């Protein structure tokens, strides 16, 4: 069996961390089994779907490296949904209903008032031909419901949740097409999953009930349902489904300097029994990906933790991987020196400016003579491969200083900062002439 997964966002908005995670899990599962990962744009809602959102979904997946093997759009597939509706109608599995939204609302209120679940009463099934003719004559158009089979529980073995069972009698026959001919999500999704050979449906647990309904649709259309994996939802660090998380997407991640690899390493593993680790490449995440490791509790997403993971990823990035994002002139040697001090790649520019100068620093009175001596030592030195070691050793001997009293004024004079990357690496990058000039300026 070739694994085929799909990520099916509605282009009515931008991707947020929650649906990026769903996309990632679909991608990981397909990659793990050498299958294919498809992007299905659920754009049946013509009013709310926009091309701008489609473009941003594609761009975000691209930035993350979750490149689909194929792309499909529901808006180009309406004839297939029509045909499926006809098939189901011929089998007596769909029926027209004429209630208005207000009538349905009233029915629900009455049921709830009587302490009953608000399940649709199937009144439309009892309509006579005359009643239907009268509605049509009044200009009413029907919406269409899928008729659930109440004979037996709907059961499946969920890859995350284990054995599931739903009593169809507890559910309303779902509306699959509206009065105006537009499609609701439910049936088109099943038609596409069948037509595209989808083997695994991986999505959030908010779809569990839909799965019950959809399993009956697969069967009614003569197809075996795919396997299902419903993952627990993502919550913010405060433990709630936060608005902020719902509004956090690739744009916000990029603005924070988050690397795609960090987001992927995080989202692949949170909510699972496997540790979140700073993988720069997806390989180990693909190999270890397994729905059996997923927990049932909501996964907590914390931006601070992501930032810390990001730093650990940045510390591993090769010069070639970041060169295009570094300030002009910054060399591989410069990157190697600065990399361990960064939380984001863009911070490299700050340190590079320190190497390039100019630096503003005037030492305290007590250190000026010491720094003048340092300048003289550098000026006399032959600036070998290890100028920092040579300088500090000579200074120690001449001035008797050691430890912080030796190192700290030098760091301040040479970089203008109290801390930073290793001085041995920085000094080589600063260069002999600059070093002399800075030491003299600080001593002045
Ligand atoms: N468009 C649906 C959604 O975004 C797809 C759900 C599914 O994966 O079937 O919720």
Task: Note the topology.
Blueprint: E1 4-7, H1 17-32, E2 36-41, H2 51-64, E3 70-73, H3 78-90, E4 94-97, H4 101-113, H5 129-137, E5 143-146, E6 154-158, E7 162-166, E8 175-177, H6 186-195, E9 200-204, H7 208-220, E10 227-231, E11 234-236, H8 243-246, H9 250-255, H10 260-269, H11 283-288, E12 299-301, H12 303-314, H13 319-322, H14 332-338, H15 348-356, H16 365-380, H17 387-399, H18 403-415, H19 423-430, H20 432-443
Parallel strand pairs: 1-2, 2-3, 9-10, 11-12
Antiparallel strand pairs: 4-5, 5-8, 6-7
Helix pairs in contact: 6-7, 10-12, 16-17, 16-20
Structure description:
- There is one protein chain.
- By secondary structure, the chain is mainly alpha-helical.
- The mean pLDDT is 96.
- The termini are far apart.
- 47% of the residues lie in helices and 11% in strands.
- The protein contains 20 helices and 12 strands.
- The protein binds glutamic acid.
Overview features:
three-stranded antiparallel β-sheet, three-stranded parallel β-sheet, 11% strand, mainly alpha, Rossmann fold, single chain, binds glutamic acid, Arc Repressor Mutant, subunit A, 3 domains, 20 helices
């Amino acid at each position: 069996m070739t694994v085929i997964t799909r990520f099916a966002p509605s282009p009515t908005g931008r991707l947020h961390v929650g649906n990026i995670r769903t996309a990632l899990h679909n991608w990981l599962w397909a990659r793990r089994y050498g299958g294919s990962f498809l992007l299905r744009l659920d754009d049946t809602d013509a009013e709310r779907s926009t091309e701008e959102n489609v473009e941003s979904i594609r761009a975000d997946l691209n930035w993350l490296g979750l490149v689909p093997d194929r792309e499909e759009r529901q808006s180009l597939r309406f004839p297939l949904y029509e045909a499926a509706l006809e098939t189901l109608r011929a089998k007596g599995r769909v029926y027209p209903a004429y209630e208005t939204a207000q009538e349905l609302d009233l029915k629900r209120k009455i049921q709830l008032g009587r302490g009953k679940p608000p399940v649709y009463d199937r009144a439309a099934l009892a309509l006579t031909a005359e009643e239907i003719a009268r509605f049509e004559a009044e200009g009413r158009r029907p919406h269409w419901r899928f008729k659930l089979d109440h004979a037996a529980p709907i059961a499946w073995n969920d890859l995350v949740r284990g054995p599931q069972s739903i009593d169809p009698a507890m559910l309303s026959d779902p509306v699959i097409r509206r009065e105006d001919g537009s499609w609701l999500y439910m049936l088109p999704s099943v038609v596409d999953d069948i037509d595209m050979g989808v083997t695994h449906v991986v999505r959030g647990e908010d779809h569990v009930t839909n799965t019950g309904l959809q399993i009956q649709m697969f069967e009614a259309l003569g197809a075996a349902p795919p396997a299902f994996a419903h993952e627990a939802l993502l919550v913010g660090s405060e433990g709630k489904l936060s608005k902020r998380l719902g509004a956090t997407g690739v744009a916000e991640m990029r603005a924070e300097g988050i690397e795609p690899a960090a987001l992927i390493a995080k989202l692949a593993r949170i909510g699972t029994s496997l540790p979140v680790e700073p993988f720069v490449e997806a390989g180990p995440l693909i190999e270890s990906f397994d729905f059996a490791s997923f927990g049932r509790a909501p996964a907590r997403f914390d931006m601070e933790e992501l930032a810390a993971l990001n730093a650990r990823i940045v510390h591993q990035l090769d010069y070639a991987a970041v060169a295009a994002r570094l300030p002009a002139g910054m060399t591989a040697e410069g990157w190697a020196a600065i990399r361990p001090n960064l939380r984001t790649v863009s911070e490299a520019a700050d340190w590079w400016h320190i190497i390039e100068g100019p630096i503003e620093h005037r030492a305290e009175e007590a250190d000026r003579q010491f720094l003048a001596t340092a300048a003289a030592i550098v000026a006399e030195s032959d600036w070998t491969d290890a100028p920092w070691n040579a300088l500090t050793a000579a200074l120690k001997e001449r001035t008797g200083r050691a430890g912080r009293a030796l190192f700290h004024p030098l760091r301040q004079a040479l970089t203008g900062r109290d801390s930073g990357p290793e001085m041995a690496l920085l000094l080589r990058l600063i260069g002999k002439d600059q070093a002399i000039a800075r030491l003299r300026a600080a001593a002045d």
